[in-house]
Amino acid sequence: MSNTPRNDDRCPLRVPLALPVSSDLATGHQQQSARRWQNQWHTIVGLAVVALIGGCSHEQKPAIAPNEMVYIDTITKTAMTLPVQTAVPATNPQTGKKTLVPGLYCPQCGQWYPAPPVEVLQRSASAFRCPKGGHEMSPNGPRPPTI
Prior knowledge:
The chain is of the alpha+beta class. 29% of the residues lie in helices and 18% in strands. Among the domains are: 19-54; 68-128, no CATH class. The protein contains 3 helices and 5 strands, in the order ααβββββα. The longest helix has 32 residues, at 23-54. It starts with 6 loop residues before the first helix and ends in a 24-residue tail after the last helix.
């Protein structure tokens, strides 16, 4: 008798790799399980493709160009995208009056608001807060109509 232990009866860590089931039952069960998993996988991949290609149902407006700015008319409170103007308040092309100030966008409200004067923005960080909810606003947001 040799001194080397036999793997089949002396190894305490030996774990069976399959349950003792009849071969017909195991094959049928494995095929059903594989088919079910494959169908679920196809569904997941299909939904991912639809989400990536389809996206949201509403059309996204293009980003604001570097030579454009969102202005808010202080009289009508409407937001518009115009080429950057050097003077503030800027001239409204529809009325010819100097009623346009730069706009800040609140992502929580989903609205554009008139920005305070530059001096106020430089002195107070709270000037960048939404007047309704106090959320942080920025000059970046969805593009309003171009005039």
